[in-house]
Amino acid sequence: MQLTLINFFKKTVPGHIFRGKRRLVKPVSKKAMDTLTREYERQEQVMLLLRNPYLTLEQSSGHAKELQKRDKLVAKWTAEQTLRKMKPHVTIEERLNQLKIKEAWD
């Protein structure tokens, strides 16, 4: 009985509590503000690193030649390897070849 009376007179938001005209809006806390400030500072540091590259254009122009990455990539996509991974071509004649038993009526 006591719990029923408490729930009966309790003032709540009608419907979904976080949507609509009469929604429940959480107050902004100090912890949330600090978290958001740290996130913005971290994003700014990342953007600073992206704006100022580690290598200049002259330094980065030929650094991957010795690694031969392009040659390895081209070797990976040769026609032989691609065809080995693919299934062989099948024609309709090969599919229907099982229906040919004898052709005595020809």
From TrEMBL:
GO MF term (any one): structural constituent of ribosome
Pfam assignment, any one: MRP-63
Single GO biological process annotation from the record: mitochondrial translation
InterPro entries in alphabetical order: Ribosomal_mL63
One GO cellular component, as annotated: mitochondrial ribosome
PANTHER family associated with the record: LARGE RIBOSOMAL SUBUNIT PROTEIN ML63 (PTHR14520:SF4), MITOCHONDRIAL RIBOSOMAL PROTEIN 63 (PTHR14520)
Protein name stated in the entry: Ribosomal protein 63, mitochondrial
